[in-house]
Amino acid sequence: MVSKRKRKPSRPRPAAGARPSPLTLVPGPSGPGPDEHANTDSDPDPAGSPGANAYEIRMLIGLIATGGLDEHLPAIQAAIGERHRHRQRAKSNQAAAQIEIGDRVRLGHDIRPLYLHGATGTVTGWAGQSAVIQLDEPTGRFTTGQIRCPPLGLQPLPE
Fold first, then answer.
1. For residue 99, is it left (φ>0), alpha (ψ between -120 and 50) or beta?
2. pLDDT more than 90, % of the chain
3. What confidence score (pLDDT) does residue 143 get?
4. Distance (Å, rounded) from C-alpha 48 to C-alpha 84?
5. Is pLDDT larger for residue 35 or for residue 69?
6. Which strands make up the sheet holding 120-127, listed edge to edge?
7. pTM for the whole thing?
8. DSSP for residue 38
9. In what helix (H) or strand (E) does residue 55 lie, and over which residues does it extend?
10. Pair 130, 149: CB distance under 8 Å
C-alpha cells in the first residue's frame, strides 16, 4: 500500500566537517544613528559570552527574522543545536558530580512517568550516565523499586 503522507522537502545539509562561515554584521537602517552610542564594547553582555554584545545580538536576530540569512539557516541551526547539546551535557555532568552513592534524592518534574514526580529514594549506583535509585516505596510498573534516572531529574534531599 502506498502512503498518502506528503514528504517534507529535504533541506540542504552542510558537508561533514564543514564549519559555518563567520558572518559580518553590518548596521542597517535600524542601527545606531549619529547621535546614538555606536561603540557597544562597554555595553553589558546579555548572553554572558565574550565578544557578543546586545547590538550584535539584535542585528543577528533581525537578519534571521527578515530573511537576510536564509541561505545560512541550516548552518545556524546546526550550530545552535550543537551548542545546546554541549550545554545540556555540561549541566548533566555538573549534576552527576554532586550526586554520590548513598545520597537521598527526590525525583523532579522532568521524570517520566508522571506518577514518579516527587518520589524519594537512595542512590545505589550508576548505569552509564544514569543514576540507579532505590525508591522508598515501589510504585507502578517499578515493582522492585529500582529505577534509572538522569542526574538532572534528581534533587538532593537535606540530610
1. beta
2. 65
3. 93
4. 15
5. 69
6. 146-149, 130-135, 120-127, 104-107, 154-156
7. 0.59
8. -
9. helix 54-66
10. yes
> Rounded distance, CA 98 to CA 90, Å?
13
The DSSP string of 111-154 is: -SSGGGTT-EEEEEEEETTEEEEEESS-BTTBTT-EEEE-GGGE
CA distance 121 to 105: 6
The Cα-based distances of 84 to 80, 87, 145 in angstroms read: 6, 5, 33
Cell numbers placing 71:
541561505
CA distance 32 to 39: 9
Residue 156, exposed/middle/buried by CB under 10 A (0-12, 13-18, 19+)? middle
| Separation between Cα atoms, residue 59 and residue 76, nearest integer Å | 15
The pLDDT assigned to 8 comes to: 53
What's the rounded Cα separation, in Å, for the pair 110 and 116? 10
Cα 50–Cα 51–Cα 55 angle in degrees, nearest 5: 120
Rounded CA gap, 54 and 110, in Å? 32
Cα–Cα distance, 30 to 59 (Å, whole number): 9
Distances (CA, A) of 17 to 13, 57, 72, 75, 87: 11, 26, 16, 11, 21
The residue behind cell 555540561 is 90
